[in-house]
Amino acid sequence: MEISSDVSQSEPVQPDLAQPESAPSDLASALLFLRANASAGALEAALKAGGSAFRGQIGEWIVQLVPVESLVSEAHREWRPIVRDAMLFVIAKLSAARLAAKIVEQLDLPPDASPETRLLHLIARVPGLQKIGQVLARNRGLDARLRRALAELENGISDSSFEEIREIIFRRLAKRIEKYSVRVEKTIFSEASVSAVVKFTWLNPATRRRERGVFKVLKPYVRSCYAEDMSILQKLAQHLARKHSDGSINLVSLSETLADVRLLLEREVNFRREQATLAELLGPYRAVPGVRVPRPIEPLCASDITALTHENGVKVTEAFARPSLLHARVAERLAEALIAVPVLSTDRCAIFHADPHAGNILYDRRRGDLVILDWALAEVLTREQRRNVLILTLSMALRDPDSAARAIARLLPTGRARKKQEAAILQRVKGALDAMSAFHVAGPSDAMRLLDGVALEGARFPAALLMFRKATFTLEGVLEDIAGRAVELNSVVRKYSALHWLDSATALFRLLRPFDWIFLEWSALTFIPRWTAQTALGLLTAARSGGRTILPERQLQPAN
Fold first, then answer.
1. What are phi and psi of 305, to 5 degrees?
2. Residue 364 in 3-state DSSP?
3. What is the pLDDT of residues 225-239, one digit of tens each?
4. Which residues, other chains included, contact 400 with Cβ-Cβ below 8 Å and sequence gap of 6+?
5. Looking at the predicted structure, is the pLDDT value of residue 127 above 80?
6. Is the pLDDT confidence value at 243 over 80?
7. pLDDT at residue 390 above 90?
8. pLDDT tens, 453-510?
9. Contacts 24+ apart (CB under 8 A), 415-419
10. Which of 94, 163, 188, 226 is the most exposed place for a label (fewest CB within 10 A)?
11. Between 134 and 365, whose confidence is greater?
């Protein structure tokens, strides 16, 4: 049955909502009647009365309005049943009050509204779904039209009023508003999935000057729906794993994506954690020339309000009207700050930005600075993790599969599981090295792609390392948006290491152990015969496959 949202149909029969067994069987008529003759409260009552069968009908109706064929391209059609099941599951688990609001919104839209528009309305005021949309918008394997629609989540969210945000600020800060002579602007500056940003000025007693700042405020509805969204995301991963366990599709990447979304939500509502990160742990980033990080204004912070210094700038991918040499330099500086600085840090723990998408990076045209925002998702790499990432990168550059495989194994938790995986890891490393072009010098990007492939085969790396891997892939996309193919992450890290050779050498000597140098020296001495053998094997394989050349260096793409 084709179900429409057009209200210009025949008069439906009024359903009796008083009894569960009287839930309407004609879904289209019931929905249209409720929208035309009743309130959202009546629709909520119908959802509670109708049980799972009624929700199932509503799910089918919404799936018709937002068909999976419009969301998932033909190239990824094997994912369509999974996306459809995910949509039906979320609709089945969303609370009656929230689902009722969604139905009303869908009926209010014009009958010819696009699936992308309907999808954006479905995920509004649902932080869990908004986060999924934001994560997917960064996946370059998705249909371009859907990516553009999902990208609106970065700058198009508008589901809070200034009045309710202002009320939170004045209620939570109370006497501090008067003490620091705070003046709040009368509009919302920007919104994200869980927070709204409002500009203000305050009297800084240390400088005795009026200074500019921004309040990042937790939206009032988030606390009430946060637990439900987290529960739905967890159960969704379990549901899809059970229903699609035949092995036809590797669901590891999907499970990781849902786990990432849950982590993003968990961190974004933890304002105190971000405040501590900004106050104590960002010294190395503030020392990078041309890079700024907002500073917290501690007297005006609370558990649901973060006060920050105001930073000028525009979204980095929109900062330049046409290509120029400046594009490349800005992209290089960004890669240096977000990848080279933490990897080559000599600190016991090195902090890194785990969500470096373009919406979190501004460019100040007047000063020529990059401004890195939103440190809610900051993670830490231990010295041991950085040691093994460096060994892995150097071993790949030296085409040494045994050394690279050992470094990967040391990144895994100790125990029997690691022992069982070592042989498979070695084969994966050999395959990755054989797939690289003969004259490609491997770098951090190749190391992260290799870790991605190993993770997709079931290896369980520490959460921080997984986040660093994903941050690398996200940043590569941003670099390409800024400067095209002119800037490549591997070359940026090599250039940074050469220009800062003393700091890089110090980091290597502090991170690597004496026997690491012995293995690396042996690997360097045996590089030429190993490279010759791998190149000859690649040429022979290419000849047998019909004259194709050795695979290009970018053939190993991240899963998400």
1. -140, 125
2. strand
3. 888 888 898 888 888
4. 523, 526, 527, 530
5. yes
6. yes
7. yes
8. 888 787 888 888 988 988 998 899 889 888 888 788 999 999 989 988 898 999 999 9
9. 417/460
10. 163
11. 365
What distance in Å separates the CA atoms of residue 124 and residue 67, rounded to the nearest whole number? 18
Q: What is the DSSP letter of 362?
A: E
Question: Between 475 and 153, whose confidence is greater?
Answer: 475
**Which bin fits 208, alpha (ψ -120 to 50), beta or left (φ > 0)?**
left
pTM of the model: 0.79
3-state secondary structure of 26: coil
CB 450 within 8 A of CB 490: no
Q: Is the pLDDT of residue 558 over 50?
A: no
Total count of residues recorded for the chain: 560
With beta carbons less than 8 A apart as the criterion, state whether 292 and 311 touch: yes
One-letter amino acid for residue 393 of the chain: T
Tokens of 413: 């938790």
Q: In whole angstroms, what is the distance from residue 306 CA to residue 190 CA?
A: 14
Structure-block tokens of residue 80? 């369509």
DSSP class of 552: P
What SS3 class is residue 146? helix
pLDDT value at position 525? 93
**Closest C-alpha among 226, 236, 229 to residue 83:** 236
Whole-number Å distance between alpha carbons of 422 and 132: 33
The rounded distance, in Å, linking the Cα atoms of 468 and 435 is 24
Residue ranges covered by each domain of the chain: 1-123, 157-311, 379-555
Q: Which residues contact 335 (CB under 8 A, 6 or more apart)?
A: 475, 479, 487, 489, 492, 493, 496
| DSSP labels, 409-455 | HHTSPSSHHHHHHHHHHHHHHHHHHHHS-TT----HHHHHHHHHHHH
**What is the Cα–Cα distance from 503 to 284, expressed in whole angstroms?**
13
> Using 50, 70 and 90 to split pLDDT, how confident is the model at 245?
confident
Q: For residue 232, what are its two tokens?
A: 């739905």
Is the pLDDT higher at 543 or at 372? 372
How many of the other CB atoms lie within 10 Å of CB of 509? Answer: 10
Alpha helices in 216-351 (DSSP H): 222-243, 252-268, 271-280, 283-286, 325-335, 341-343
